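User: My instructor asked us to take a sequence, write out its structure as tokens, and then describe one feature of it. I'm not sure where to start. Here is the sequence I was given:
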Amino acid sequence: MTIELYDLAGAEDERRFSPNCWRVTLALAHKGLDCRRIPWRFTEKQAIAFSGQGAVPVLVDEGEVVADSWRIALHLDRKYRREPLISGEHARGAIFALKNWLERAVHPAVLKVIVLDLYSHLHEKDKAYFRESREKRFGMTLEAFAAGESAAIVALRQALDPVRPVLSEQRFLGGAAPSFADYLLFGPFQWARVMSPKRLLDPEDPIFAWRERMLDLHGGLARAALGYPVWA
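Assistant: Let's start with the prediction itself. The structure tokens for your sequence are:
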């Protein structure tokens, strides 16, 4: 039975932009597992009602439904032992901490830079929902939230300081080869690449070289995705 992944899409079915869904897409490729990626939009809640969730990713694996990227990664490691995503209890705790830091520090910093480009690439039926829900969250308009782009890029680069020394010493957060830690960090960069032409990194930044390696993984899966060229 084919694994199915409900995956957030923009105006075009091929524009898959969720950082959390990209974590799972790359985790499946890491395991050598084929899947059918089903395009889903914010307003299509009924399509995933069977999962008890209102957001993606949602994975359906031989009838088993798993939601949330972290739970999906744990499920994949339990069921498919080859090429582990997370090796051992110590790694599990550290990578879970990384996930929470990224979602609190890096994802918001990326969103501030790309939010208006992201909005422009949404399907028309999602735009009103996105604007209303995000403006309620931000306490201001999308345009006000996006103000000060140059400062926002500086703030993003500063937010990434904790991983920069690691990637100066080794090819991946996971060492010589990628792990789920790398897929977690890569998610927001692919989110930006798919939805925005903004240049997030200095070419001399070790994170830039790491991002290039990530784009080339698994036969260039992420690089081949619909989006913008990566300059810096």
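For the description part of your assignment, you could build on this observation: Residues 88-120 form the longest helix (33 residues). Try explaining in your own words what that tells you about the chain.
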